[in-house]
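Fresh eyes needed here. I'd like your take on this protein's tokenised backbone:
***
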Amino acid sequence: MTKVKWGIISTAKIARVHVIPGMQAGAYCEVSAIASRDLQKAQRVAQELSIPKAYGSYEELLADSEVQAVYIPLPNHLHVPWSLKAAEAGKHVLCEKPLGINAADAEKLVNACREKGVLLMEAFMYRTHPQWVTAKNMVKEGKIGELKFIQTSFAYLNRDPENIRNRPDLAGSGGLMDIGCYPISLSRFLFEAEPKRVVALVNRDLNWKIDILASAVLEFAKGHATFTCSTQLTPYQRVNIFGTTGRIEIEIPFNAPEFSPTKMDYETTAGIETLTIDTAHQYQIEGDAFSKAILEGTPLPIPPEDAIANMNVLDALFRSEQSGTWERVK
């Protein structure tokens, strides 16, 4: 079977622990190279994960003619610059979320990849997991009546001042950019629409100045979505999807376990039914779906324009933080 040869730009933890093993288990992916600004680190990770080639710079990896696609898990402010360089080198790009630091940044990248004829996707891996495919189908089929309200909680505890998520000198740090983008994405995904306006309440760390607690309301034409995200609360994540005749609750919506089943509660007037979703590695599914799009021309699970739309909502939330009132979404 033909496989896409992948290069990994960075030895970030998400790549080492989740994405690379997922791709290596896939039917259409071959991880052939990894790069770091530290050659010894790249070589060590390459040896640990049985990756054939290691490079001491990102430029060297992009110059590798065998590499067809790259995965970019760099800090947020580096997503667009290195994705642009990858596109210039003729590589297809799977880039971590958020795609840019604002909508204009994301739009610049989307247009550049289109001009270069390379595929681009924002790595919202959760959308490929069977639990979300199931939930989306249930909503579309009217299993909960008409969708009216989505409620999301997403939090973790990180007080490390050196962590990139807590660095005020790095554009795109903070909780909204890191995890707030997920409830925005899933709300747009389920409503199949863009919110008309949004309002946000944001608390910032007194020393780091980055947002550590944010709550938001998204107004859609057919309903509402609310979420709270935090980088300084006890770890927790949950999504509740409410319709006129039923409700779906997803127990582990984003960091779904890779080696055990997941559970969803489906509640109607008849009672509550717990649905068990078979074990699935969402990074494997994501990598294979992107690779199939390269090899066979199948549609990407998430079109690149979706990243611009998600950033438009984030931009509006940051404007709302400043204005203290509702803001229209571009």
